[in-house]
Amino acid sequence: MVIAYLFAQLLPLVRKKKGFLLVLGSANVDEGLRGYMTKYDCSSADLNPIGAISKGDLKKMLLWVADKYDYRVLEDVANATPTAELVPIVNDGKSKDHTQTDEEDMGMTYEELGQYGRLRKFYRCGPVSMFRKLCAVWYPMEPMLVAEKVKRFFKYYSINRHKMCTITPAYHAEGYSPDDNRFDLRQFLYNTRWTRQFNVIDNEVNAMENDEKVK
């Protein structure tokens, strides 16, 4: 990102033009929720056109534009494997595959992050209420697995929430953004162990498993 700002300042000078260029960011809501970005680096820019849009909604928008305006290259963009591209691509002579994917690195899918984000913002869910709602939404997934997913999300959300205080300003087309720039004014320091909440979840999982054994 430092290089991007360097080019933004130097290009008008080199081309003998007045003014300067704006640096655009490309981080999305899901990456912000998970904290899957480097503070003051890839999360820094002057403006982020997609900073308040989830990966799922962004993909739907790209596919709609591709179909509406017959701009088929956007289908390739929408269906490309999400990757930070920090690890070399493996070329076996037949195809080129990314050895690093965002979802594998994050330990959760973008679809899951989209659900976490909506439940967190629209329904004001904390760990316990999110666990209860997702047990119903993701049924018949085992409650223990749902609990693991919810606890993993809140662990990383709370660790990285501070990054939202310095995030690039974005255009807010949806209400689920975690952007702290006058939009989602929540605390940015948490007890990342969520001791009480996670204990409640564990107790409820045990109760559900015992009920299942009785049946």
Structure description:
With 215 residues, the protein is mostly helical. The protein has a domain at 110-208. Helices cover 49% and strands 2% of the residues. It is built from 9 helices and 2 strands; from the N terminus they run ααααββααααα. A two-stranded antiparallel sheet has the order 1-2. The longest helix has 20 residues, at 195-214. The protein is globular and about 80 Å long. The protein starts with a helix and ends with a helix.
Oligomeric state of the chains?
single chain
Share of residues in strands: under 5%
Report helical residue fraction: 40-55%
Distance between the termini: 57 Å
Question: How is the topology of this model organized?
Answer:
Layout lengths: L1 H13 L14 H6 L20 H14 L4 H7 L10 E2 L4 E2 L4 H5 L3 H12 L5 H11 L5 H18 L34 H20 L1
Antiparallel strand pairs: 1-2
Short summary of the structure?
The chain has 215 residues and is mainly alpha-helical. Helices cover 49% and strands 2% of the residues.
List keywords for this structure.
single chain; 215 residues; mainly alpha; two-stranded antiparallel ribbon; 2 strands; 2% strand; globular
